[in-house]
């Protein structure tokens, strides 16, 4: 609102269905300040609402002047000031053009308009001074890395992010370390994980010890035993809820994205994941994982398989509803 009042063109695209509890006055204040606000899935009637209920825009994208981009797991949410932990990236360079394209595609399809020729939104970045763009940020800065932005949506032929997960698991030779808030993998992804572990790769899964939903927590737990039986390692993270969606594999490939490891993200939601092909980045991501693993509780098959019968029963019953979670 402040930037819009200063004359900056601010476009704000929000997922409508997931934010229905938010009062319209919240967005009206933004409009009065000059912010252009659009709903990703507008629902003028009950039939349209039912038809679009499962199609959510789960992407998190910010693009500034076509030169700076942010993406990753973070929502605009007060939870990050109190009880959530996440992983997000700040990007400069050519990769920002991909984020810009993805945002504008959704913006125009949601009824938004542009006030300039399309080319103006994709400035040439070859002479952009990366060193002067950090704004005092003391986080790690990595230059000249090969980065791939991969969008996914339910109306394309292939579930490309799900297939990417399958490929990485099946091609891991030494290790793959995964962080996810929700572990409800479709069968092909689950099978790829187990195959990777049984072929000798170290497959490590880190997930919050306490989920943000009791039902989802039971569904998550329903998968642990077969993962442990296949030789995977499962780390339960105490403390704040971890909302990060990342993996790192074999000191060369790192992913930071918006997609959870569940049917909804892989098949129904509009998502965007980023893949960085670089050893320095992978070693940094690996260090983050290993440092957090030190404070985790690692499950053991011998003890987990002996958990109370009623707990097992509740997990298996809840798993029947996994595709709906």
Radius of gyration: 21 Å
Task: Tell me the helix content.
Answer: 25-40%
Q: For the record, what is the CATH homologous superfamily label?
A: Endonuclease Chain A
Question: Ranges with pLDDT <50 over ≥5 residues?
Answer: none
- What is the succession of H and E elements? HEHEHEEEEHEHEEHEHHEEEEEHEHEHH
CATH classification, class level: Alpha Beta
The class by helix and strand makeup works out as alpha/beta
The proportion of strand residues reads: 15-25%
Q: Give the domain tally.
A: 1
The biggest sheet amounts to: 8 strands, mixed
Principal-axes geometry comes out as globular
Q: Terminal Cα separation, in Å? A: 35 Å
Mean pLDDT: 91
The strand line-up of the biggest sheet is 7-16-14-13-8-10-11-17
Second-tier CATH architecture: 2-Layer Sandwich
How many E strands?
Answer: 17
Looking at CATH, which topology would you report? Endonuclease, Chain A
Number of helices: 12
Structure description:
The chain is of the alpha/beta class and 325 residues long. It is built from 12 helices and 17 strands. It has helices at 2-5, 24-32, 46-52, 95-109, 160-171, 187-198, 214-221, 224-229, 263-268, 279-293, 301-304, 309-319, and strands at 11-14, 36-39, 61-64, 68-72, 84-85, 88-92, 146-152, 175-179, 183-184, 202-208, 233-237, 241-242, 246-249, 253-257, 261-262, 271-277, 297-298. The strands form 5 sheets. It has an 8-stranded mixed sheet, with helices on both faces. The model has no long low-confidence stretch (mean pLDDT 91).
